[in-house]
TrEMBL record:
It comes from Caldalkalibacillus thermarum (strain TA2.A1). GO terms for biological process: fatty acid beta-oxidation. It catalyses: (2R)-ethylmalonyl-CoA + H(+) = butanoyl-CoA + CO2; (S)-methylmalonyl-CoA + H(+) = propanoyl-CoA + CO2; (2S)-ethylmalonyl-CoA + H(+) = butanoyl-CoA + CO2. InterPro entries: ClpP/crotonase-like_dom_sf, Enoyl-CoA_hyd/isom_CS, Enoyl-CoA_hydra/iso. The lineage of its organism: Bacteria, Bacillati, Bacillota, Bacilli, Bacillales. Keywords: Cytoplasm, Isomerase, Lyase. The keyword Nucleotide-binding does not apply. This is Ethylmalonyl-CoA decarboxylase. The keyword S-adenosyl-L-methionine does not apply. Its EC number is 4.1.1.94.
């Protein structure tokens, strides 16, 4: 259901149900949770990439499976899914949604929970839930409101319209557009700029990013914690090696 591969410190999770446009069923959510927890502690994985197999990224939840559940069962199911997407949103390592194809409904919620969203020109996105008479049920609206202005996010949610990746890029929902050909290769090359960096510093920057929106801390407290994080790695082995290289280079000049 989900294929996995580690390529040069980048963990790639591929949604692999192309015959149903990678609709997410219960088994896939279990696997997604498992690999996120496994790679959280894996020192060899510095960046997580989510993508899809075939022509779609993700069409959302598997409505055929969901339709067989009672409302009480759906409530429990959605709570579990909400927790998985929240864990993805709060993941200690950078997360990237590589939109190899169309993302609609819950597929957009999944992508919105990631740190970055990359796409190619043929991709379309749509929070289409309202056309089914429902709303986002996995936290996607809240992630969208964090990414876009209130008006733009609300427009996408209320209209249920699909937009092109180019339009999404202009809005700020997509961070980068790559050519359709060899799309994943371009994505991995983009991610290597992060994956080549020291893991400790990556983790600390993610902490700072997550705390930036936390209303429980004043700006002064946030900056104090930022300084403390820097001091954690100051004088460490990577820093010492870099400083030696820097000083030797300056001596030669």
């Amino acid at each position: 259901m989900i294929k996995t591969e580690i390529i040069g410190n980048i963990g790639v999770l591929t949604l692999a149900r192309p015959w149903v446009h990678n609709a997410l069923n219960f088994q896939m959510f279990k696997e997604l949770k498992y690999y996120l927890e496994k790679w959280r502690e894996d020192q060899d994985v510095k960046v997580i990439v989510l993508t899809g197999e075939g022509e779609s990224f993700c069409s959302g939840g598997d409505l055929e499976e969901f339709s067989q559940l009672s409302k009480e069962e759906i409530a429990d199911c959605f709570k579990q899914i909400k927790d998985i997407l929240l864990a993805l949103h709060q993941y200690p390592k950078p997360t990237v949604a590589a939109l190899n194809g169309t993302a609609v409904g819950g597929g957009c919620e999944l992508a919105s929970a990631c740190d970055f969203r990359l796409a190619h020109p043929a991709v379309q996105l749509g929070f289409v839930q309202i056309r089914l008479g429902i709303t986002t049920g996995w936290g996607g609206a809240n992630y969208l409101f964090k990414l876009l202005s209130r008006q733009k996010a609300l427009e996408l949610l209320l209209s249920g319209e699909r937009i092109s990746s180019i339009e999404a890029y202009k809005l700020g929902l997509i961070d980068k557009i790559f050519p359709t050909e060899d799309f994943l290769r371009h994505v991995l090359a983009w991610c290597r700029r992060f994956a080549c960096q020291p893991l400790d510093a990556i983790l600390l920057y993610k902490q700072t990013a997550q705390q930036a929106d936390d209303p429980r801390f004043t700006l002064s407290q946030k900056i104090t914690l930022e300084v403390e994080r820097c001091l954690k790695v100051w004088g460490g082995p990577v820093y010492q090696q870099s400083m030696r290289h820097f000083l030797q280079k300056n001596k030669k000049k």
